[in-house]
């Protein structure tokens, strides 16, 4: 689909820093109060890609790529504006770096204090050897490749469930641990592997975060709390951190937990099924279909989960299942009993 056919934003509303812009590729964008729940995804794109793979290429599902798949939420800060008319697409997929001396224009300006949350929907970032995450901004050297870096910085925050967030440690003096410090050299068709160190961007090892898996990356413009060169330039609509792309160096498949609910050997329709991770507070809910079947897709393969089923008048049941990086599917049968 051509960029000029993608959904456009109501610019008068997205420039209000008290609003959160919500994106759904299949609908028009809209702004809601910042306290409201933000939801968006690149689901339409994922479904289209899957259809092409399965129907046109006759090759089954496509392997998940390492790139961020959706903009979960975006809160515009002061002097934001640039790139918003191309959301969410402008921050999805591989980077389009401008090199050492020129910042990319394929970027979203967060504005001073702006916040954007990127979601991995068809894959999960996991803690592997060395660096695990890359954030691509549009930093560049001023004057020459040996000149100072024009940087606009952001804190990096991680979550597996959008309930608990961890901010990566950083040094305010060296800026180590912040995003927005390194130029980006990789762009489509220039021969530089975007996941390689030669590609540029800011690389992070999540080992010290206490997280094994990451599904959401939140970037928060430092808003003057840490000085950067961008503070010295009249921002116009290009204020704050500028996001080009986000990538998972260590990217794995999500898990599938499914099964059936029965009572006295018969399938139970509309039984309530709850999936609860052994570690974590977020629960996921489903209802069984006419055959008693339920399914939880895109599950983080983080170990043990408890599956509970209940139907008023028929009783309840529970079981524990295990999914990990080597076993991403689990099936369970739950027989209700009073």
Structure commentary:
It is a single chain. With 338 residues, the chain is mainly beta. Helix content is 5%, strand content 33%. It folds into two domains: 250 residues, no CATH class; 81 residues, Immunoglobulin-like, CATH 2.60.40.10. The chain is built from two helices and 25 strands. Strands 2-1-3-5-14-10-11 form a seven-stranded antiparallel beta sheet, with no helix packed on it. A hairpin with a 2-residue loop joins β18 and β19. The longest helix is centred in the first third of the chain and has 14 residues. The chain is elongated and about 75 Å long.
Quick take:
Helix content is 5%, strand content 33%. The chain is mostly beta strands and 338 residues long. It has two domains: 3-252, no CATH class; 255-335, Immunoglobulin-like (Sandwich).
